[in-house]
Write a structure and sequence with these properties.
This protein has 230 residues and is an alpha+beta fold. It folds into two domains: 2-129, no CATH class; 142-226, no CATH class. 29% of the residues lie in helices and 21% in strands. It contains eight helices and twelve strands. It has helices at residues 89-92, 130-144, 149-158, 164-168, 177-181, 187-197, 206-215, 219-225; strands spanning 2-9, 16-19, 22-25, 28-31, 40-41, 55-58, 61-70, 97-98, 103-104, 118-119, 146-148, 200-202. It has a five-stranded mixed β-sheet, with no helix packed on it. Strands 9-2-3-4-10 form a five-stranded mixed β-sheet, with no helix packed on it. The radius of gyration is 29 Å and the shape is elongated.
Amino acid sequence: MDIVFSPLRSDDSLSLHVSGDTVTFNGISFNFSQIAEGEILPASAVGCNMLKGNVTRSGGALQLEILLPYSPAGDVNGDGEITDMDVPEAIRFPAPLSISENGPISAPGLSEHQGITGQGTIDWSKLVTVAHQKQDRLNEWRASTSIPKLELLLNLVKAEIISEESAMSSDIPAEFVPIIDAMPNPPRAEIRIRWAHLVDVPRSSPFVGIVQNAFGWTDETVDGLFGWED
């Protein structure tokens, strides 16, 4: 388990205890064993105000960012403000910890563990799986990517969807003309004009969607034409 501390000026205190994938904050235990490699549990899903960042697992080890509260002892500057100069550097700039053994965690700024007093709550419905992350990346890519029209035509020829002759024409490929001709105006005219002046073709282009539906292509087929690599 790897822990990064984020110092926080506060009158609160913090004790930590680790047992496997269970972390106890001030006596309240949270079992993070359901987090698989690469998954993300948002801090908002954990009922603990000492957890600052998301909880993840990388290389088999849990990764946590935890607030480290500290209270200045009362050093006052010329403006009458309490300063942090009396707080040890080890607390103001805490070093990360790599935990390999079970038991109380001892580090500058931490209080002594007093035992487990309860079980904390985790909303596992907020867990972001690797599959969810992949789908989010794919959705973002579909909405933002575009490729040169020339590259799309070459990909269509390679996939044997259109002929070389169609690709060499400046007009809409002949294989797609019946689809466009069947459309009512003004959409038909708009698509023809836009195609004639296109330099790059967006994955999200209405033209792409029309052709996809007409030919019954899957989203994966279209993604491949636009260069998506899993």
